[in-house]
Amino acid sequence: MNRRSNTRRSFLRAMGAGFAALPFARLLEDSVAQAAGETLPLKFVTIYHPHGLSAEYWAMKASDTETAFDIGYENCSLQPFDDAATYGKSFKDKLLVIEGIDHLSNANGHDSAGTILTGSRIDGGQKPQNISLDQYLAVTKGLGSATRVTSLSLGVGNDGTAAGQTLSYGEGGVALPKIIDPTKAFDLLFDGVVSSGADPAATAAAERRRKLSQSVIDYEKWDIKRLRDKLAPPEQQKLDQHLTSLSELEKQLGGGMGAGALCMVPTRPDGSKFPNLKQYNGGEPYFDAITDAHLDVLAHALACDVTRFATLFLNDLSYNNNPLSLPADNHGSVAHIYNASPIGNNGHPGDGTPDSWLPLAKFNRYAYSKVARLMQKLDALGVLDTTLIYATSDMGNPALHSTQNVPTILAGGAAGKFRMGRRLKMKPDCPPENIWCGQNDAVFTPVTNSRILVSIAQAFGQDINTFGTQPDPALTTGALSELV
Amino acid sequence: MRVLPKTGLVAAPLLVLLALGCEGSVQGVGPNASVGGSATGAGGSGNLGGGVALPPGTEAAALLPARIRRLADAEYEASVTALVPEVGPGISADFIPDSRQSGFTLNEAQRVDPVFAGQLAAAASKLAANVRSHVAEQAPCANPTADADACATKFIEAFGEEAYRRPLAADEVAHLMTVFHAALEGGTYDEGIELVVRAMLQSASFLYLTEIGDVAAPVATVKLTPYELASAVSYLVQGRPPSKLLRQMAVEGKLDTPEGRYDATNDPGLALFAADNSAFNAQTRTTRIIKEWLGTDKISETAKDSNVYQDYARVKGALEEETKQFLAGVVSNGDGGSLAELLGGAWSMVNAPLASVYGVQAPGASDSAFVRVALPNRVGILNQGAFLSVFAHASESAPVLRGVAVLRRITCAGVPSPVDLKKAVVPPAPDPSKTTRQRYAEHAASDCAACHNNIDSFGFAFEAFDGMGKFRTRDNDKDVDSSVVISGTDFDGAYPDSNALAQAMSTSPQVRECFARHVYRALAATSVPELKPSEDDFVKHWQTTLATDGSGKADAKIIPTLVSFITNASFAYRRGL
Lengths: 484, 577
Description:
The structure holds 2 protein chains of 2 kinds. Chain A is α/β, with parallel strands linked by helices.
């Protein structure tokens, strides 16, 4: 995305030498380019929501078709995507709902979030066996190198790095930590970005801070190399990641990179609104506020091109008197009491318990309302058309800890790479004559999320045809042609 | 636990990755080669010769590999607190949690990722600002206009030696002076000192402990430098940086031999095991090791279904405090703490809410005051609320979690994970007409029996305690059956419940050795199995330190087990890579 088009080159020539080095250069350049009809770079956001799905209020109705479907019916959890009254417009035309995707985690449902962006089997409660797609694109393929922050991992209430709590993994499946404090996320993304029109004193102070920080980083790098030279190669690799991390900090100093001073830096989140951040330690009542603050910071970061790759790990509202009027224990008293009909039961017979469908659907709706909220913000900032959102969960039927039929949604304009405004239903993974087929049976033919990962990689211009690690390579091969 | 490839294979996976890259696919290319891989013996990156002679009886294959290790979060905090006492405490509260190895926080595979690097930088700024506010005492300079360089050099050498735990070399001082000048230019002497501190407290020299000796080229065996020895002893025992005195003794060669190190652990001037006022001392270190060994440190992340266990939220904090005070009591008991008492002592420390949950009288207890009570129906730490709650589900007890925890952590019997065996785990469906034990009976009737007869035997013994560790005699309106038959151990037999079982385990030689192995893993900061020769070497040495108990019953002393890691001859040596 660093190659400049003719429009951009003419603009830069017109502005004269030295302009391109100014902090706001790229954003102005972007505006001019956009006005000339060029698209902004594609951005990728992955959102995880816990507790799987209440399929009875999500799945396609008999009356739905691929392009004509109703998500506005009472209690439908997808309602937020077709709710102009709340979000200003309907986002139905920027939604792609996909039924029948399986995550072959091979881990307990609770440990399988790590498969979402890696497509990897997770053995023995350990970690995925390959890099996650967002890191593959941002780091390995360098698509994040042009932005101040290569990629962003946000979480709500949970800063652990176990497989069940992490979406982003570096080379070799090394878990990347999440930022759970929106004020820290803000500082990472916007610290040191001086607004346009700042007085010379402020600019000079910022420049001095940058110079001092650079000199610290220069020393760190020297010190690391000094130590590294004394080590054998396997030990040197420990310091290599440290060096990469320092390069990331260096990039954020903005020296020469350009951080978009004309970018509308948002107000720093008010930390007093969430005095507790962590789950199981009094953070739950603040999760909603934290989520909203994260979404705001994220939307602005994408709009300012501070980063193009982000993940967000949502949490639930497990506390007394939560605004959804759900039982205080969302896990035990909502997800685990869900007793599905065949729609939510991987096709197995049994009427289920209708009273148990709505509470979980309410929670699903809450999660989707956050996705819709992000879409609303991105739209207002003019970048929804060039953003791809992938929203999913670690499980399908949460009471069974099943990773079959996991709710999968693509949203946003995706720069036209996917045909939005549709509902897709994949072929069932077990044939009708053997609905109880097991994952080791020959007749088990799942459509895995690896296919979606391949499609997304191709949307980013990467010429690959597999993504993930499974014993049978066929399971990780091929784009999902239905998406385009 | 997946076995990682040996060093010699590092190149291979990378080549495979490149090849696949050409074909346009991304796939896991096998085990992760980037974790600090360790070679066994000489089968590593070529046969290394040379190096120091090892003491008789010490084999190269039994040595830990030469390596560096990033400070764990708690070690980082202890280290900055020693340097900047006003701001250090609590500064790492929001740091990314340590990544664990075998459940332990000391982990030589722990890295600095971009988020952590940012957190370190922010902390370093805070710490440096505090030092700057005390510049008159910490970096005095009578005439900064004329003598800035001389004063700064003096400060760098002094503060640097404390921060890096060794004297600085000339090139290090020179590069830090460059940092000083970057701030001095257009700024003040004070800002220069501040920037130097910022740089030092994020540097590799501060952040990593080295165990590489001082050699110009790779050799087969190295000896740790005196400074490395001092740091190793201090961090392993007290979780904090070595004092000047300890470093001085190390330079004098007093830590070079097992005898010297043993004397150091008893040296009153060093007071390595004193219960001083510090938040980081041998007691807190030992408590942490035991909590990580048993898994009870997870209590802070353990939540329960409040419909089923209404009392849990109220006593969760008390369960953590109970463990802390119980361990303090056990460890401070004369001879360094008895494993037999840890597992078999029928007492604990409770506050008023916890006493009521346990169903005991606790005179003098209040919400905040903990008192010691005898417990009529709980024996040892495994039958206290923290262990029982961590190894349970949100709304019911978990015989499998408890059984696996005991097997892996207490008896060291290997238990394969169902995922390794390609079996999908489906929890037994809820059934109000059955007890938990009855619902899990389906294990016995399937091909799960091979492992589960063993696992469930241990797990069912704990059935008299519900999912939050409360004592019960009924489960779904039926009597609880906690009687079990144990086999395959050195304490086989029939047991009526987990208390009798804990009593037997508390004096079992098998359990005692399993404890020692876990202490090894806690201190070696690296994962078995590739280091089994090193672990076995430690166990062999540890067994020579066991005192015979007059009653003939096996026991292990907790602090002496830690000490034996240090007095092992191989402690001062590393295997070259």
